Amino acid sequence: MSVVEQNARAHILTDDDIQRQDEGAVPVVLRYDPGADPRSVRVGLPGTRECTVPRSLLEEGLRVPAGTGQVRVWPCGRVQTVVEFHSPRGVSVVQFETRALLRFLRRTYAAATPVVHR
Fold this sequence. Notes:
Blueprint: E1 4-14, E2 26-32, E3 40-45, E4 49-54, H1 55-61, E5 71-76, E6 80-87, E7 90-97, H2 98-112
Antiparallel strand pairs: 1-2, 1-7, 2-3, 3-4, 5-6, 6-7
């Protein structure tokens, strides 16, 4: 099983850094390491901050609002998906293009599927 990493662009708004709302799209790194945690993906936000999202929650949130507590995901129209992270530092709202998340998730499932040699 191999690590899947994908660069994406996202709009970010946080409680602790309100200026982000005017910066436009920023680079974000999506990472899936099935050897370390096969059920989760990592979202690397600017400033070396990483958040963990259950892969199944991310997939469900592409279609319908999902999650409670620290991570929530929901579709925002037909082309955007919002991921909301709650922490003691505050709330970060990250808006992705849905296509980028779908492409990343497909790659994670392909990486997690063992290859059978006959």
